[in-house]
Write a structure and sequence with these properties.
It is built from 13 helices and ten strands. It is α/β, with parallel strands linked by helices. β8, α10 and β9 form a beta-alpha-beta unit. It is globular. The protein starts with 11 loop residues before the first helix and ends with a helix.
Length: about 375
């Protein structure tokens, strides 16, 4: 029996890189050995808002800290923010060159989430932590993906992310990416506003595109009515970016397309294969396009990941990543809950993934003998 990863008999190792730094580094080495360009790694603290119950749950909420802040005057130091900062900085230390850091800003606790829920910027302590994280990531030659989260918090997250892109995406590439959820009806309008800002202010827009992971807790009316609508929205944005044609940007007699770096996170094989083929063809024909990378979640859709790896050409594209998280069992609970919802059709994919694994083994054996 071929074992690709060391396994523990606990659910975290199905979707998470490890509970400790040593376990996590070992998993990241395995991803590299399998041919992935690198890893997207996040520290597993977050807050999820359930629209149905109007309650928040997840790590990052300490009741004693929240009560203290609610009764005190101006908060000068928040222990939750500091704990999140330390965990995130430790995560940066696990990254290799070319890896990505994924940030869940709500993991910093109630002082931050209350600001986000009001559409405001977080406290200065959080802004300072984000500045430190950006600088440390840049020094390590790693990039940052700001995750989309519950819509209850998202407008505040968008504000701070746009400010970070304005400041740090000034060297012709995106250090910081915002995550756009294709299942939201509002995403085309949000993206158009951010393209306008990038065009007028001269920074590179980091565009990470996902379908969406909060369908179980977000307000249903905000989300497209059908999966087909979401698929169409995803492909329209992805292929529009690759053609440098979104709305008025890149259109005949429209506005010039701004600098964009694209990251496609998707388990939909049709979407990612079509995107890679379009990018490859436009590059071959010397047509304008944007840099693009691809990612799938750790423990999910390996047939998609391996299929992309098998398409890799002499230019090193497509660049494929695995997205994982790390931390203790408690810190991973909210993350694992969403993974379970997304993975509910895993049984139907088992045959495809087994076939993909066999094909990947054959590919590796063939590559070994080709160099002998």
């Amino acid at each position: 029996m071929l074992t690709l990863f060391p396994e523990k008999i606990i659910p975290t190792r199905t979707f998470c890189a490890g509970e400790t730094g040593l376990e996590t580094k070992d998993t990241l080495r395995h991803f590299k050995a399998m041919g992935f360009r690198g890893t997207i790694l996040t520290y597993a603290k977050e807050t999820v808002f359930d629209h149905k119950t109007n309650n928040t749950h997840g790590l990052g909420i300490a009741k004693s800290e929240k009560n203290k802040e609610a009764t005190g005057s101006a908060v000068e130091h928040c222990a939750n923010i500091e704990a999140w900062r330390k965990g995130t900085v430790e995560t940066i230390g696990l990254l290799g060159e070319g890896d990505y850091l994924a940030l869940k800003l709500t993991g910093a606790g109630p002082t931050v989430t209350e600001a986000f829920a009001a559409g405001d910027l977080p406290p200065q302590q959080m802004i300072d932590a984000l500045e430190e994280i950006c600088l440390k990531s840049r020094d390590r030659n790693a990039r940052i993906l700001i995750d989309a989260e519950s819509q209850h918090f998202q407008w505040g997250i968008l504000r701070v992310t746009l400010d970070l892109m304005r400041k740090y995406n000034r060297d012709g590439y995106a250090l910081v990416y915002n995550t756009y959820q294709a299942y939201l009806k509002s995403t085309p309008t949000t993206l158009a506003k951010h393209l306008t800002a990038a065009s007028e202010e001269g920074f590179t827009l980091g565009l990470k595109l996902v379908r969406g992971a909060y369908i179980a807790s977000d307000k249903r009316s905000l989300i497209h009515d059908t999966k087909g609508n979401t698929d169409d929205a995803y492909d329209s944005i992805a292929q529009g970016a690759l053609r440098q044609e979104i709305g008025e940007f890149g259109a005949p007699n429209g506005r010039p397309f701004p600098s964009v770096n694209l990251f496609l996170a998707s388990h939909n094989k049709g979407s990612v294969v079509a995107a890679h083929q379009l990018h490859k063809q436009r590059t071959k024909d010397n047509l304008p396009t944007v840099p693009v990378a691809f990612a799938q979640l750790h423990g999910m859709s390996d047939e998609v990941s391996f299929g992309l790896l098998q398409m890799k050409g002499s230019d090193g594209t497509p660049e494929v990543y695995k997205c994982s998280t790390w931390g203790g069992m408690g810190e991973c609970l909210a993350y694992l809950l969403r993974r379970a919802i997304e993975n509910r059709d895993a049984v139907s994919r088992t045959g495809d993934e087994y076939t993909a694994l066999k094909a990947e083994v054959r590919r590796r054996i063939k590559s070994i003998f080709s160099f002998s």
